[in-house]
Amino acid sequence: MPADQPKERMKIAILGTRGIPNYYGGFEQFAEFFSVYLAEKGHEVYCYNSHNHKFQEKNFKGVHIIHQNDPEYKYGTFGQFIYDYNCISDSRKRDFDIILQLGYTSNSIWFFMLPKKAITITNMDGIEWKRSKYSRPVQQFLRFAERLAAISSDHLVSDSIGIQSFLKKRYKKESTYIAYGAHPFNSPNESILNEYQVEKDNFNMIMARFEPENNFEMVLDGVERSNDETPILVIGNHNTKYGEYLKTRYKNQFNIKFLGAIYNLEHLNNLRYFSKLYFHGHSVGGTNPSLLEAMASKALVLAHNNDFNRGILKENSYYFSNAEEVKNLLLKIKKNDNLQFIQNNFEAIINKFNWEKINGEYLQLFEQCMARHQTGK
């Protein structure tokens, strides 16, 4: 039996991810941490997984796993719509109290199928239609999908103050601000660096999905201009059209190392901890999980200059807007001169962005929504 008995046991579903445990990205990581937290609190929790997810068991740390057919591997993006249809269709027969949707891009068009008795809470993610990787017709569709999700959901969650303000202004909809979290990293192991052929405080990093708005090219152009020979590790799945372009573009730059995706959190934490400079190029969306993890790993973060990043890092970072500024930062900034920035960001994780706090805020929201639903308010 769970150590903590809930005030009222809820039956909760989590939709909108490829599944848990995490082998993909931020929403999957949150789904893993939050679903296990809910199960430990005594709630009945179900997470929908792609049928071809690496984890094929029906239970993960007390969380029920429901595998559904996901033909994205066969049909590309269109397959995501089929997968979400399959998940929502299945949810109609489960008698859930709450359905938590993570994102809206391919599930909002099925909003009319969501079970009417369940409370639908949607994390609205970033402003997806602004992503440069999408063509104009796709961007128009995403604006439509965003509107559907905003209007049809019983409650909205924003992962940044910027997104919260955007939803209020565009849709006149209130939302609850709950950021992502990270676990403070306190167990460095320098021997892990041997696997990546780098030395302590003698390599830089950038880590993200290979998409133009994450500004890999801006950062790597700055590296090229600086003539700085410090290795920079480029982490993320580069087997994409944009990834192939970047690998070709910098094939003669010996210090740029494309490592591919790394999902081993211990390795990532140690790489961030022992890095010299950590570049965060994200420019679209809300609170980015990898930024919080860099802060939690005591990396010195140099971030793209935008409201989302400034909202998290405040004055505890150096910011860049172009390759020339990246070059100047590479040549001027020293980690040992900025230990207070590192400590301030680490304390922000402990006090504001820790998973226990974030999970607790989500659970409190669920309890409030259930109470309002039961009283008819």
How would you describe what is shown here?
This protein has 377 residues and is of the alpha/beta class. The chain folds into two domains: 11-181 and 354-375, Glycogen Phosphorylase B (Rossmann fold, 3-Layer(aba) Sandwich), CATH 3.40.50; 190-351, Glycogen Phosphorylase B (Rossmann fold). The chain has 13 helices and 14 strands. It has helices spanning 26-40, 72-75, 77-91, 136-152, 161-171, 216-226, 241-249, 265-274, 289-296, 307-313, 323-332, 339-351, 355-375; strands at residues 11-15, 44-50, 59-60, 63-68, 98-102, 119-123, 155-158, 176-177, 204-207, 232-235, 256-260, 278-280, 301-304, 318-320. The strands form two sheets. The chain has an eight-stranded mixed sheet, sandwiched between helices. Strands 11-10-9-12-13-14 form a six-stranded parallel sheet, sandwiched between helices. Helix 1 crosses helix 13 (355-375) and helix 6 packs across helix 11. The longest helix has 21 residues, at 355-375. It is globular. The two termini are 33 Å apart. The model has no long low-confidence stretch (mean pLDDT 92).
